Amino acid sequence: MNADDTPLPRYNYKEGAVLLVDKPKEWTSFDVVNKIRHKLKKRLKVKKIKVGHAGTLDPMATGLLIVCTGRATKTIQSYQDMPKVYTGTMKMGATTPSFDAETQEDGTYPIDHINEDLTEQARRQFLGTIEQVPPMFSAIKVDGQPLYKRARKGETIEVQPREVHVYEFELTRIALPEIDFRVKCSKGTYIRALANDFGKALRSGAYLTALRRTAIGEYQVDDAWQLEDLVRHIKEEPVVRTGDE
Fold it and tell me: In this structure, are 193 and 110 located in the same domain?
């Protein structure tokens, strides 16, 4: 039972389960999938079970990760296509190669000129359909190799801009050098790139210092498992087999 006496869900992992997980900071999305897969194989006493996720979160980011098991892995694309909602913090006046706090600052810029009118003008530029160049530190493959691996070697590759759609972009707190935001966007949107471009629009620089995904379509992070709780649940819940209710 939960604290409010509601029964915990039972999943048929082999037939297919959709799990909402609140990804911890410093874990990769692949780390989360591997952890769940390992626990399921041990609990179900099987050598193989399909487990995948719908939409990568960077290690620095936290928040909603949809994990599918068994036959439900066939539905991953439908979740990936859903709009996403993020909240986060940008640091103004500086940039990093990765567009977030994972790498060291490589440039500093003035912020004294940034005011409410300028931030509002800049914010409006990023509403609707926009073109965005993915960051070099991303998993996009060029010639069969992820960009981040080439970036770590010091290589610079020309990446073609992509069209993405920003449905909502709010600035929820301005306390320079920090600006908090909330954004609702289409699949394929890089929030790190949005922060970098926003800094340029302010005639300054910016990078992400915090990011949290709060929703994917109608699915909310408030309804998600903490990873430790889910692992414990997998270990302790009765095994549901095909045909069980």
Answer: yes
